[in-house]
Amino acid sequence: MKESAFIRREKISWISYMEILFILFLIVIFLKVTEGMFNRFDLRDKTLESKKPPNYCSVCSKPNKKPGDTTIVKFRPGKDNKLVCDDCFGKYKFCANCEKPTEEYHYIFGKGPCCKTCFESTPRSFLDTKIAVKYEQGKSCSICGSKRNIEVHHKTYERAGVEKLEELVVLCRSCHNTQHAKVYSGPRGGKYVIKKGKKIYISDDDVKYKPKP
To answer: Using CA atoms, how far apart are residues 10 and 22, in angstroms rounded to an integer?
Structure first.
């Protein structure tokens, strides 16, 4: 009885080992088949991608790949999902209004960067206008050259709110007040303004930016 029980136990263990090996064999085959399928799909995607016509930069018209080359260079999306290469993406800003690339731009609060043409034709706050004028003309008085108490002066108020930058000038506070002060003629033909109760004689250059009526 003991010998038959031992033989039976040995047969059972042998069968279980064979089952385990068979299951492992099936797992290996399944992995190999699925790996081959994925590789085939990857190759198919690469061949389809290589056959696609190249994309071109919307600014400089540079293609994202060379003819016959499978290496695809990804472009960055610009305005309106237009593709832009890395060089143009770092060099230009896209106008928030006309969406054209520009190197000279000014910011409008709530809109973003705008080219000079759109900036001058778009209603905006005077704070945005002052920042743009100081950026273009510098931060020194156009008459005396002072860099203290810098302000922005209107040459004309015809386009108030949508001023052209050429219609504005950077002045210090003293020269700015002179432009708005009443000019008097002296007894000998000289001109003067009154500031803080004192007569201050001026030349024509001192009042060359008086606002036009």
So the answer is: 18
